[in-house]
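For consistency, the fold was encoded as tokens, as this record shows:
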Amino acid sequence: MAAAPQAPGRGSVRKTRPLTVKTSLDNPYTICWSALEREDMHFILQTLEDRFKSIGLEKIEDKKRSKKPFLKIQGRDRHSIDVGINEEVKEKKQEDNQKVSGWTSVCVRRQLAIGVNEVTRALERNELLLVLVCKSVKPVIITSHLIQLSLSRAVPACQVPRLSERISPVIGLKCVLALGFKKNTTDFVNEVKAIVPRVPSLNVPWLQDRLEDSRENSKSESLESQDKDILDTSYEDLAKHKRKLTESRQSIVLQPLKIKKLIPNPNKKRKPPRNKKTTSK
């Protein structure tokens, strides 16, 4: 007969399940978009809508191909029906080929960054003049990273309500969560100049006065005149100019983050405590 399982002794140690711990850092700062006035909102939406309509920028999508109906017919009648269906399909293809799928003007499309991913890439490469974000984005974390990116690149940015509702049907898209205007734009120069003064300044504690300094530098001389002056100046003047730039960059102060709670690692292997009997021996 098989022996019954014995109960564990008093000295035995029960194995406990390891605790699942998630390490997380709490951010003491609340970063959010600056509020846009109602008049400025209507002005931005109206100017963009009028400009897109005047240019005629629109995306044309391919229509779904019509499926052939399944018919259980035998003999000559089936052959005649197949020939008729093939002729109808050819006519529809000819009609669809007249409207080429894609953007109506590729040159204008290259001057814009449409969508959150495309705007983030353009901001990282420092290619944008203006960034507009739709307010109806959920969750908010999808576009919250654009605040720090646009401020670090000295690009004016704001959150515009009803941006996707007004502009997406004009362009021919389902939604427009973010819209950026590139530096090489020629068709939206007047619109960008009119919108930028109405954009509220962003507030990030560790990037203070970044946008104001960039606007002052943009109002200075053009790049061509600066290149001519650099060629005329001596080596000592260039060194002084570099020192001034480094001093202005050092004016940005980084504030430390506060850690809320530290939790030790429960999976860390520790040596078991020695018993008194083993030590006495």
